[in-house]
Amino acid sequence: MEGNIFLALTCVAAALSIGLAGLGAGIGIGSVGQGATMGLARNPEVQPKLMVFMILGMALAESIAIYGLVISLILLYANPLKALAGF
Questions:
Q1: How many CB atoms within 10 Å of residue 64?
Q2: How far apart are CA 41 and CA 33, in angstroms?
Q3: Cα-only R_g, the chain
């Protein structure tokens, strides 16, 4: 019974880690896109310079989702807490 609860909580933690990381990445990418669009609307001449910063900002925001994916995979397949729980 205790093993089932541990497995269920591990699955919930993995789902929360990827879900919240995806939510944060989506908000970050949306914010970067909004800022780039507003900047281009005000000053279209800076498009090449702004595009570089926009892509960099989106890549950094997307890395948050990748970190969440790594954490969820660690929780599901290489859980370091299994030894402490006795499983």
A1: 19
A2: 12
A3: 19
pTM of the model: 0.80
Model confidence over 63-87: pLDDT tens digits?
999 999 999 999 888 887 777 767 6
Distances (CA, A) of 69 to 16, 22, 62, 72: 10, 9, 11, 5
Domain boundaries, the chain: 22-80
Question: What DSSP character marks residue 80?
Answer: T
Taking each continuous run of H as one helix and of E as one strand, the counts in the chain are 3, 0
- Do residues 32 and 57 make contact, with C-beta atoms less than 8 angstroms apart? yes
For 11-50, write each residue's pLDDT tens digit: 999 999 999 999 999 999 999 999 999 999 999 999 999 9
Taking the domain 22-80, which CATH number applies?
1.20.20.10
Closest CA to 69 of 17, 25, 8, 27: 17
